[in-house]
Write a structure and sequence with these properties.
With 273 residues, the chain is α+β, with helices and mostly antiparallel strands. The protein has 9 helices and 8 strands.
Length: 273
């Protein structure tokens, strides 16, 4: 078992079809309120110009929304942050379109949709919209994506001694691939992580990797799983439940035989809303 390291949450962003924003999600995740019955279609990230907003796919819309909110919550300039973007499946809607078009009439393939099909599309939009020249990393690891992406972000914080933006997201699966890679609704979650406490520290994360079977990973509460509609990024919920509560311990899967163990304790201000 590795030695525990520490990072601090400086800002939080969250958006799902039933929990559109951390101010709505935090009370619901700690059981104070219920998730709204009516689902929102998709967020409208203010960082993008109106024309880009209309053309951007759902992956970009939800990723940029939570990334912007996390930076706003942390009161940091998004242009200054290195970032890690994690998605289990990428843009399944565009992947379905690409497969169908290539199989039926390849000459009709849309160049815009093609460039939005790559796994780092959301990260690319973010760096352009935020004017950010800091490095970014795009991560996928199937069912272990949230934990692996978080470990990458935490490792960068520890290695570089500088804040890092972590963004995780997945969207609705479409077409035949939905039977193999199921996902419902939209879900995005973001954290600004820092190596040291500050007056704005929202929570303290003590973390380490440890051996363990993926079945030992912490499960989200059943009611909260229903609120994110079976999204592929629902593995993020146990951490955000602890952040909403202000404390707690959890384990996230990194592989079939490795876990990321995290203890959440209050920061300077706490993240409850």
């Amino acid at each position: 078992m590795s030695t525990a390291r520490v990072a601090f949450v400086q800002g939080v962003g969250f958006w799902s079809s039933r929990l559109p924003g951390w101010d709505v999600a935090a009370p619901a995740l700690r059981g104070s309120t219920s998730a709204p019955l009516e689902a929102s279609r998709r967020p409208v990230p203010a960082l993008l110009p109106a024309t880009e907003r209309r053309r951007a796919p759902d992956t970009v819309a939800v990723a940029l929304e939570v990334a912007s909110r996390a930076c706003e919550s942390a009161a940091v300039d998004p242009a200054t942050l290195a970032s890690v973007f994690a998605s289990t499946h990428g843009d399944l809607a565009i992947s379905d379109y690409m497969c169908e078009t290539l199989a039926t009439n390849p000459t009709l393939t849309s160049p815009t949709r093609f460039h939005n099909s790559v796994h780092n599309a959301a990260a690319g939009y973010w760096t352009i919209a935020a004017g950010c020249y800091a490095p970014y990393t795009a991560v996928t690891a199937h069912a272990h994506t949230f934990g692996e992406g978080l470990l990458e972000a935490l490792t960068q914080v520890a290695a570089d001694g500088a804040p890092v933006l972590y963004v995780a997201y997945d969207i609705e699966a479409r077409g035949p691939m939905a039977t193999m890679a199921p996902s419902r609704g939209l879900l995005g979650a973001a954290l600004v992580l820092a190596p040291a406490a500050s007056p704005r520290s929202a929570a303290r994360l003590a973390w380490r990797t440890c051996p363990g079977h993926e079945s030992e990973a912490t499960a989200a509460r059943a009611g909260n799983l229903a609120a994110v509609e079976g999204n592929a990024m629902a593995h993020c919920l146990p951490l955000f439940e602890c952040l909403a509560q202000g404390s707690g311990s959890l384990r996230l899967s990194l592989s079939p035989q490795l876990l990321l163990e995290i203890t959440v304790s209050p920061g300077t201000e706490g993240v409850r809303t």
